[in-house]
């Protein structure tokens, strides 16, 4: 990729795809990370829904930076066969919508149990997922989500050591690391060679409260300055999480009620402005946008 491109989870603006696209056009954002449209998760799109969404995206002049799938966001002890079928369908949807990536996870670990006890099962499942992605010539992006196997830097590095390559790469999510007690600067140094895609949200140490980028303890500005200053190009994808939005309860094991008075559009614009403020301090970013 030759540029830095802003994207984001537009289902946090509003459930309705039409409202999502209108807001992105208003702000000059050319890409979205597609997680849900009209209340339907992208991995559950019917062929008819795929055609409808594709037509609306083309009419709006907006492209998909990544499929924001829920793949790998099940318990490690749950039946994997139906999930593998969901992966195949999601990869098909990815190709139909022209997205370069599929975001995914490395399975929830039972509470109060040692993640190391499930390492082999995680690696087996991920290996099968990567093989399926290879068959589709697709790229899976692993996100460091809370409570999954790869929720801290060392276990993310294990997964990269095992599978990093043309079909398995890393998303770096600042807030998720903060929320599991992982300092972001050492995490970044460890995972920097594998980072293809960045989720932009910040969080406060201790409480885990999500805040606009640069207002928390994720060292967002410092890390982006180093990453972009080193010549990195790719997608910076906003995931504001600054207010409750339709579907959040279905996406997190233990969703926090933030009580924000912001509506989805206002929260998204706040997150976008915060990111712009950071990027304006990075000379290479202004050149690459």
TrEMBL record:
Residues 21-241 form the Xylose isomerase-like TIM barrel domain. GO terms for molecular function: isomerase activity. Pfam families: AP_endonuc_2. It comes from the Bacteria. Keywords: Isomerase. The keyword Cytoplasm does not apply. InterPro entries: IolE/XylAMocC-like, Xyl_isomerase-like_sf, Xyl_isomerase-like_TIM-brl. This is Sugar phosphate isomerase/epimerase. It comes from Candidatus Acutalibacter pullicola.
């Amino acid at each position: 990729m030759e540029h830095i491109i802003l994207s984001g989870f537009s289902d946090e603006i509003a459930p309705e795809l039409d409202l999502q696209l209108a807001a992105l056009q208003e702000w000059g954002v050319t890409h979205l990370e597609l997680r849900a449209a009209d209340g339907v998760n992208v991995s559950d799109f019917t062929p008819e829904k795929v055609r409808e969404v594709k037509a609306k995206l083309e009419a709006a002049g907006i492209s998909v930076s990544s499929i924001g799938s829920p793949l790998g966001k099940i318990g490690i002890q749950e039946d994997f066969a139906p999930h593998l079928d969901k992966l195949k369908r999601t990869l098909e949807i990815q190709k139909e919508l022209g997205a370069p990536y599929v975001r995914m996870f490395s399975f929830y670990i039972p509470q109060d149990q040692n993640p190391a006890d499930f390492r082999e099962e995680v690696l087996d499942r991920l290996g099968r997922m990567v093989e399926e992605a290879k068959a589709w010539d697709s790229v899976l992006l692993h996100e460091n989500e809370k409570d999954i196997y790869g929720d801290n830097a060392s276990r993310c590095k294990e997964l990269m050591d095992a599978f990093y390559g043309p079909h398995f790469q890393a998303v770096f999510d600042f807030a998720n690391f903060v929320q599991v007690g992982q300092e972001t600067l050492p995490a970044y140094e460890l995972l920097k060679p594998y980072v293809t895609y960045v989720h932009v949200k910040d969080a406060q140490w201790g409480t885990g409260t999500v805040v606009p980028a640069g207002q928390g303890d994720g060292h967002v500005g410092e890390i982006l300055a180093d990453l972009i200053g080193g010549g990195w190009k790719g997608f910076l994808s906003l995931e504001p999480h600054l207010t409750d939005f339709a579907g959040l309860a279905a996406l997190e094991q233990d969703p926090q009620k933030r009580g924000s008075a912001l509506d989805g559009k206002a929260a998204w614009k706040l997150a976008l402005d915060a990111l712009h403020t950071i990027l304006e301090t990075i000379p290479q970013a202004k050149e690459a946008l």
